[in-house]
Amino acid sequence: MNGNVMTTVEENRQDVEQLAKREYEFGFVTDIESDRAPKGLSEDIVRFISAKKNEPEWMLEWRLEAYRRWLKMPKPDWAKLNIPEIDFQDLYYYSAPKSQADGPKSLDEVDPELLATYEKLGIPLSEQKILAGVVAVDAVFDSVSVVTTFKAKLAEAGVIFCPISEALQSHPELVKKYLGTVVPQSDNYYAALNSAVFSDGSFVYVPKGVRCPMELSTYFRINERNTGQFERTLIIAEEGAYVSYLEGCTAPQRDENQLHAAVVELVAHESAEIKYSTVQNWYPGNAEGEGGIYNFVTKRGDCREANAKISWTQVETGSAITWKYPSCILRGDNSVGEFYSIAITNNYQQADTGTKMIHLGRNTTSRIIAKGISAGKSQSTYRGLVSSHAKATGARNFTQCDSLLIGDQCGAHTVPYIESHTPSAVIEHEATTSKISEDQLFYCQQRGLSEEEAVALIVNGFCKDVLQQLPMEFAVEAQKLVGISLEGSVG
Amino acid sequence: MSLLEIKDLHVDVGGKEILKGINLEIEAGKIHAIMGPNGSGKSTLSYTLSGREGYEVTSGSILFKGRDLTEMSIDERAAAGVFLAFQYPIEIPGVTNMTFLRTAVNAQRKARGESEMDAASFLRFVREKAAQLKVSDDMLKRPLNVGFSGGEKKRNEILQMALLEPSLAVLDETDSGLDIDALKVVSEGVNALRDPERAMLVITHYQRLLDHIVPDVVHVLANGRIIKTGGKDLALELEKSGYEGLIESAA
User: Fold this and answer.
1) Which of residues 85-104 of B touch A (CB under 8 A)?
2) Nearest CB to B104: which of A437, A448, A465?
3) Residues of chain B with pLDDT under 70
4) Which of B82, B92, B161 has the most A C-beta neighbours within 10 Å, making it the best mutation to test the interface with A?
5) Are strands A379-388 and A350-359 parallel, antiparallel or unpaired?
6) DSSP 3-state helix, strand, coil percentages of chain B (rounded to 5)?
7) What range defines the domain where residue A314 resides?
8) Looking at CA atoms only, how far is residue A313 from chain B in angstroms?
9) Could you please report the per-residue DSSP string of B125-154?
10) Residue A401 lies inside a defined structural domain of this protein
11) Which residue in A371, A434, A435, A444 has the most chain B C-beta atoms within 10 A of its own C-beta, making it the best mutation to test that interface?
């Protein structure tokens, strides 16, 4: 890790401590000028967050309801994960980057330090890239969006792409109409927590018949110590609309565990299509299993009307703990759900990930391709539910789960749940488990590849069906990531 | 100085001694054939040269271009110019032949401090070499060796050799599983790669291959030792009398 970043982090930490003390001293609730809420969670903190964002009253009430429900909910313990006890009162639930106070209107106004950090993380948030005109970047630094570009071009097409906090000001009726309709406040423990304290995230609205003119991309990262990240993303595609959304995550190296609990809701109306792609490489902890992000995510899409399509593609290489099941509710007749996943775990990482395909409408189809790669002492579980309800005549699912093991100290597990209440439904499940053979490694090395290059090549081949679902610019990045994630896993 | 100098080489596999004192010198530009019955140690020799795990050199030395080969990793040997054409080429699902070839060529170029080839110039390079070996575009697009016929696999091995341009090519039973026509294509490909700078070690059971790839020197390997060395006629002699008589007279 770069020394400068280390210094910055250390300075930030000291700032946080000082500020926290000061805020306690003067009382924080009325002090909405401050950049941070003190540690801990209470109704006052929820009110603080809502006030900071100048939210309408209904939004505050919605948050408070979520908070009250969260208090009564048990933590889910069914996943094959060993989760250390999390002290929710020892976390910060709101923080803003300092230079954000005035809200930069362009890149020029953004703290150069911030931009430099993005550069180090390899995030292509540069004028050139943006002017190249392929990707609009709504970058999230800690909890507040820093800069949003390409809005004009999107606005021309009638597409709304902005931080959800901004949408609450500019299009409150849309947010109110859709928020929580796919993932209700009390859906699960982490979703309820997110509903109470979500800080920011993206809002996308694509009007009827509009094909979004560019791939939408948001980069999230976690910066400050002990700062829980609670993004909330809401994407709506009206009748006949199409949108492809990319999400990528990186985080600098750090010692302490960090909690992340995001919620993503997708709504696809009649004949609309939403494609949501993720590359997640948050800090996974060190080789001894210390540190790393805890990632508890609820992602769900609703094919609300006929002929809608929602496709999830994820490349999960980071985090110490991953708990994530991007799902599709196939409500509309003939609607289509897809889940393409690569989950790589190394060292002491744990991943319990998969999907739910809920077939409610007639002739709905779903396709699941999940590739799990385990190395080191890691544990990887695919957990998936395919259910067809009584009215879902002609429902069709195909599931393929392949696990690849590297070394003999890791584990791969496949837990498929199948519930069919429709005699005419056809549900197929295929699963394989394999190891990288010594023959394959030797063959590649004899041709001049190092052992790590050989592993990366073989694993990329194993993941190909999923990688080719990613948009081009992400596919290249993801291929590199696959190799990087498995460094040191053999030999 | 010879390109390859093997002196009193002893190799254990799984705790059992397989090579029991091999002496072999190969000069650049020469083709040596190693013949011998099953279990004589032919494949062990090829794997030992390429550095495969589990092939333990217990004594003796291998010098390649004057460097101690036993101190080098598998990929270092490859970059230094050691190439093994596999008897049973390995399948790698999901990785196209083209991707594999380019990754291999660039890995070696990088290891030698040369610049990597871009996609366009590599494509031209491959197409030219592929045409000579009757490797179709389709074969280049398919996953490496997956669903390849025996002949396709062997042609693809020789294509790799043509692209990687090694100083020492070890051909491990390249004739196995080939019909007459395929054998001809493969042999022509190998012969086209004969070069004053390049040596080849052709391992085979049968004289048949050596009709097409004519060796300068023939060795007979039996029970972990080279028991006889001669010219190309030795192979013909073996074809008539078999290994047994020779092994008995050597014993």
Assistant:
1) 86, 89-90, 92-95, 99-100, 103-104
2) A448
3) 250-251
4) B92
5) parallel
6) 40, 30, 30
7) 2-27+102-485
8) 18
9) HHHHHHHHTT--HHHHHSEETTT--HHHHH
10) yes
11) A444
* Paired tokens of A434: 């394999």
Helix (H, G, I), strand (E, B) or coil at B109: helix
> What is this structure's pTM?
0.80
Does A357 map to a domain? yes
The one-character DSSP state at A160 is E
Reported in sequence order, the residue ranges of B135-205 that DSSP labels E, i.e. its strands, are 143-144, 168-172, 199-204
Cβ–Cβ contact A14 with B under 8 A: no
Give the best residue of B72, B77, B95 to mutate against chain A (max A CB count within 10 A): B95
Beta-ladder partners of A435: A405
Which residues in chain A land under pLDDT 70? 1-35, 96-152, 218-228, 249-257, 473, 488, 490-491
Residue A468: CB atoms within 10 Å: 12
Asked casually if ipTM beats, i.e. exceeds, 0.85, the reply is: yes
C-alpha angle B56-B61-B66 in degrees, rounded to nearest 5:
130
Question: What pLDDT shows up at residue A127?
Answer: 35
A258 found inside a domain: yes
User: What does the CA dihedral A167, A171, A172, A174 come to, rounded to 10 degrees?
Assistant: -100
Please report whether residue A230 resides in a domain: yes
Q: What is the token pair recorded at B85?
A: 């054409």
Helix A43-52 vs helix A189-197: angle between axes, to the nearest 10 degrees?
50
Q: Which residues contact A450 (CB under 8 A, 6 or more apart)?
A: B75, B107
For chain A, the domain total comes to 1
Residues of chain B contacting residue A465, judged by C-beta atoms under 8 Å apart: 94
